[in-house]
Amino acid sequence: MVQLPDTLLDAVHERVLSGIGDAPQREEVARRVVSYLRNTAETTVSAEADGSTFVITGDIPAMWLRDSAAQLTPLLRLVIAEVGTEEDRAVLVDLLAGLLRRHWQYLVIDPYANAFNRTPDASHWDSDDTDLDDPWAWERKFELDSLSYGPDLAWRLWQATGDTSWADGQFLPAARAILATVATEQHHEERSGYFFRRTDCPAQDTLVRDGKGSLTAPNGLVWSGFRPSDDACELGYNIPGNHFLALALDRLGDLLEHVAGAGDDADDAPQLAAEARRLAAEIRAALEQHGLVDGPGGERIWAYEVDGLGGHVFLDDANVPSLLGLPYLECVAADDPTYLATRAAVLSPQNPYYYAGSQLAGVGSPHTPTDHVWPIAKNVEGLTSDDAAEKRAILEQLIRTDGGTGMMHEGVHVDDPSVFTRAWFSWSNSMFCELALDLAGVHREAAARV
């Protein structure tokens, strides 16, 4: 595993301590950020001999494309804000570029898989019946975020630093795989060969209709079998996933035009860039036409899923992409009226997975038991607020409700923090770091340097 430089961690501690204001637990917040960054690096991150970076989720020895990018996003914040020495930040850039190289490798192997093994040893969570059996895949649940997090991270790293070392020989094949998959899954019923079946499992771990998922009609959105929670979609078009995919495709277009276009083997890069932008525009138009529903007061809000046949469902899930997290992902503005109306509905009993108790109130998930709020969602709640006092209050609440473990969890019971799921969940730790860093002025966005 990887050890972060002590000089970097010291600089992080000082930046958080001096930046978050006179909070009662400011020292504990700073200490935890350092502890979580160290823990993520030393227990989940592996710098591979081929120059790639492999990142496990924590208590599961596989790499999720979504989780791995989220787990290392705090490192990009440190690079953007120039925390630590130049040499320290070079270590972080190498890890991030290595993660992207691993993303491209996996996307070329199978753009439908959500989680992968470190080596092709055929390890897996459970036995699945699907249309491709590959020993690299830990699990083959098709989720839109698997196609989105890599291009988004690559774009942000490139914009912030100018680094293009991640654009290796697998980048263009991965881009082609992403674009082909998106175009296919805009017409899932007619064009897709993907199916996923699992027996003797909860209903959310398999797809209905013999593995094809609930019936959909083409409308410009991209079909997804599973949500970012790894639970099956109730309806086939996940709205927050499509928002993030449209953004990622636009950013992939920039990368194809300005990075891959310089290579001798990239003759089709301009055409691929144009295709990425065309698909992004189609998805955004479809979101406006099909993704909005009436809220409780008649205002328009975003649905969570639709089917292209007139059906929709409103809820929000703690996992990102989420409706709550759309401004965090830079898909919409935090002051956008439609987002604000959606946010109000998400953070209310209108959302069936909003739970409130004596210790916590926030968004949970059907992936975990009733009355469990996710720290990930609480951090996203803070990251999408412009109120520094609210951000500080959330950090302090999360410290109080860690069940005495010193770590963030998956879900925490709203009345009894000693009841939680997943004692070791690295993504959740990283989201705590993001909120603390954000409060300290260490932001995700940077002025473009390229």
Question: Can you give a write-up of this model?
Answer:
- This is Meiotically up-regulated gene 157 (Mug157) protein.
- It comes from Brachybacterium fresconis.
- Pfam families: Glyco_hydro_125 (PF06824).
- InterPro entries: 6-hairpin_glycosidase_sf, 6hp_glycosidase-like_sf, GH125.
- By secondary structure, the protein is mostly helical.
- It has a domain of 260 residues: Glycosyltransferase.
- It is built from 14 helices and 17 strands.
- The strands form seven sheets. It has a three-stranded antiparallel sheet. Strands 8-11-12 form a three-stranded antiparallel sheet. Strands 15-16-17 form a three-stranded antiparallel sheet.
- The longest helix is centred in the first third of the chain and has 24 residues.
- It is globular, with a radius of gyration of 21 Å.
